[in-house]
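Schema walk-through. Below, the input block comes first and the output block second. Nothing else is stored per chain. Lengths vary across the set, and this one has 152 residues.
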Amino acid sequence: MLALLTAASAAASAAEAGTDIESLPAQAVQRLITHAMRLLRSPEQEASTYGATVLALASRYEPGLAHCTTALVAHPSDEVRSIAAAMAVLDEITQHILVADSSPQVRARLAGRTRELADDVLATLRADEHVDVRRALASAAKTDDGKSTKPA
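--- output ---
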């Protein structure tokens, strides 16, 4: 599990930093996704969390893998859905699904990504009364040094 996570993390970090790395061979990416999906379906919470993290990182490495986020958003575990909210590449539809999640943990993790969110999703989060969501929004505002890219 750790080797899989390390490989996905290194690839995502390099891709986000714009480092000129050679792409992973298609077969390696396929194996990475296959193993991550097996972990995601595990009844053990730790294994499914590792699988979710690998899939979220993979979506950052290769934007064509963003469809893997669907498996995370539809997962019954709050922890897995919160990993999607915090780490995966999110299109507007996925943002709308996550902002309506019943788990405050998921909504709070989404709130930590204010710069990436659609205006209506951000407005919904600002109207959320759960303390964890409010804290996450406040923390994101501090991180932005009061220079949020979205109007309050």
